[in-house]
Amino acid sequence: MTEDDATKEHEKDIYPLEDEQSSKYRTYSILSYFIVLVIIGLPVWWYTTRVYRADLPLVEMSSLELESKLSKQLGIPLSLEYEVLITIVNPDPGQLKIVLDSKQLSYAVEPFLKRISSIAQFTVKSQWLYMADIGVVPKKLDNEFVIEEDQLPHIITPLEKNLWSHLSPRPCLNLVLYVPECSSSPLNIYKKVGKDKVKSTSNAMLSPSWGGVYILNPDTESCENKLFKPELEKIASTFIAQLKNLLHLNDYRNRNDLRKLHKRKARDMIESSKRTLKSLAQLLSEINSIVISDEVAEKIKIALENAQNAELYLKADENDLALKFAKVAFNYSEKSFGDPSLLALLYFPDDQKYAVYIPLFLPIMIPVLMSLLTVKKNFKTLKTKN
To answer: Mind listing the pLDDT tens digit for each residue in 232-256?
Structure first.
């Protein structure tokens, strides 16, 4: 017997080999750990930590064709609801009392808004504003005071902070009636025509995305009596003209002009809906951790379907039907894109998930994998003996 054989016999006496039954139990134990951790544990972990995302027509959303440029013809924010805020500004009520029923002024504007209510819902509100400065120092020119049209932003800024329009959840169209003090009257607006400055016939200014300002000068007799009774119809007609300019509408009584307005509104809403859906599809493809619930998915599908139908009707020159479907598409596309549930797991992406769970699984998996290698070696050994 050689020295190596003697050593092996000695080791057998000190460390007796496991019997066949114990070896099977050890193998079964290792395999059970592997099944529980890898075959069952990992899929369960992946399923329970995955982000739920309902089925979406992402291919259709991504393939939507957009115009190269959004239409700006309406000049006002695109919405299904607007607030029309009529503000009467009296900078010095102690020197001049203005007799004007703001409710009657609102009622005088409402027939025009009802006529165009098919494009959006309009809510008319009114308010009085006292001791408010116009924000600019008018220039004295002969017997009048002058404000230039390019000074309009300087007028809007001080007025805006005193209006409650910025508190409204809906876009607000401001119609401001400013009655200057008698000491600063007459106050006239001069517009730039070419190189010349021409006195405005309406004495009103317009900001396409904000609204308009109408300056109404009190006459000399009213200043002497400290009582001014402006003509309601004149003010209402000026405000209606400003609203028509904001909407690019020539004559709201003309059916052809209304059809053109419906077509512009439908086209803008279709384009906005398509851009929103396409942006959402791109966002979902780039960020996998955004949750899409069944409710949001349903909104997206409704928006996509109605946008496609509206586009078909618009091509067929069915403007009223196109507007009807476009409003639904715009409404649901905005709701789906702004749904709070989209941000549920936005700040827990996959790389953070791996960083949290790998330190937990890795120390457990290494011994299991090493044991599997041992089982594999034992299996080969038994196979060789057999």
So the answer is: 999 999 999 999 988 888 887 788 8
